[in-house]
Specification:
Blueprint lengths: L1 H4 L6 H11 L10 H17 L5 H9 L1
Helix pairs in contact: 3-4
Length: about 60
C-alpha cells in the first residue's frame, strides 16, 4: 500500500476497503466489480514498476 499511496493514480477508497479485505469480510460489498478491477489493475501496474512479483494478484484479476 505504501507504494500505491505514493502514486498519482492513488484512490483513497481502496484504503477504506482494505480493513474488510484484510479480514476477508466480503459480506457487505459496497463497490462494483469494475471498480475493484480498476484498483487491482492500478496495484498491478505499480508493483510491476517496482519489480515485484505480481503472479498472485494476476490470479485474482482473472477471477474478477
Amino acid at each position: 500500500m505504501m507504494i500505491l499511496r505514493e502514486s498519482t493514480l492513488y484512490i483513497s477508497t481502496l484504503d477504506n476497503k482494505m480493513e474488510q479485505i484484510k479480514k476477508r469480510n466480503f459480506d457487505n460489498p459496497n463497490f462494483l466489480s469494475k471498480c475493484y478491477l480498476k484498483s487491482v489493475n492500478l496495484f498491478t501496474s505499480q508493483t510491476s514498476k517496482n519489480w515485484l512479483n505480481t503472479e498472485s494478484i494476476n490470479g485474482v484479476r482473472k477471477n474478477i
